[in-house]
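[agent] plan:
  1. take the single chain provided in the ticket
  2. run structure prediction with default settings
  3. attach structure tokens to the ticket
  4. add a short note for the reviewer (M.T.)
[agent] executing step 1
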Amino acid sequence: MDENLVVVGRVAGLFGVKGWFKVFSYTEPRKNILDYRPWHLERAGVVEQAGPVTGQIQGKGLVAHLAGIEDRDAAAGLIGANILVNRDLFAQTERDEYYWRDLAGMQVVNVEGVSLGVVESLLETGANDVLVLQGERRRLIPFVVDDVVKRVDLDTAKIIVDWDPEF
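[agent] step 2 finished; step 3 output follows
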């Protein structure tokens, strides 16, 4: 898969009988997924560029339609497909702002040089985001810049934190 493609959502279900489908968006706010073009769909490890997309907010969710998908049966074949877009479509981040995708897979080391693990994923808690680390054990570390996260080095894929290895 092209490393410049980023998963931004997935096809979650069917909507109506004319080929429309429900979209589960990973973007914030959720409706932003409708602004990214073109979409690529990943099914069974195969990525294909999708035809022109039409989409809209429907109730509390999102629905979309792809050119060439004209009925419910055709749309059913898309359920579960990941929706990807080119990373170049994303806004530039400011200092101390990061896309979660950039943090996943980074090595986390505390200020004393003790390896705490690798970022497996992130959680949104409302108060702050949380790094989920996998190492000799699973750790949850709040992503609070300056207090806990001292430095994020995208070039070396390393995050330095002020965190006791016993936690």
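[agent] step 4 note for reviewer: Residues 5-88 form a domain with the Elongation Factor Tu (Ef-tu); domain 3 fold (CATH 2.40.30.60).
[agent] ticket updated
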